[in-house]
Protein: E3 ubiquitin- ligase NRDP1
Organism: Paramuricea clavata
Amino acid sequence: MALKYPLGYDDERFESIVNQNFHCLICYNVLKDPVMCRRNEHYFCHGCIAEHLRRNSHTCPTCADELSVETLQDVPRIVKNYLNELSIRCDHYDRGCRELVQLQNLKRHIAECGFTPVVCGNQGCGETISKRDRTYHESELCQFRKLKCHNCGEISTMMVGMKTEMANINTKIANISTNQADTKTKLANTNTNMANVRAEMAD
């Protein structure tokens, strides 16, 4: 069954071989957030021993001494100093980061690392990319990016001109319609007058 709690650091991540005395007695990796049992000073990753105590009996898995999360103790300062000065690869080595940092600076480096995976912010995309590539991906590569109009100013000016021209055309059409109505009225009056003249001549 796969372990789901945080384990120690894999030996392969370190620049040099780490002394076996600084390995967790549960996961056998290099100690992460190290603590120890109070009597016999057996070292464990905090996550490993906390999960062991939650799932099993409240005893040290090495010496069987009574133990609980509350009675766990910090490891000696010399152990912390040794671990803090170890050079370790970034968590995102497989994504391309080649930085080697001291273990005590690892969390800060990861928070700033350009290879940290992030999700594209464009709606509909959801692709995971490196943080350093996010801006370029979202603005240039992503098929869901918002396209920029480089000629919008010119197009807006043209649209205003076209609207003005259309308004002038509509005014001219209205004037023509008015003139046509006047012409029809005059023609009707002329026809009426001619009819009257014909009637008088017939009399």
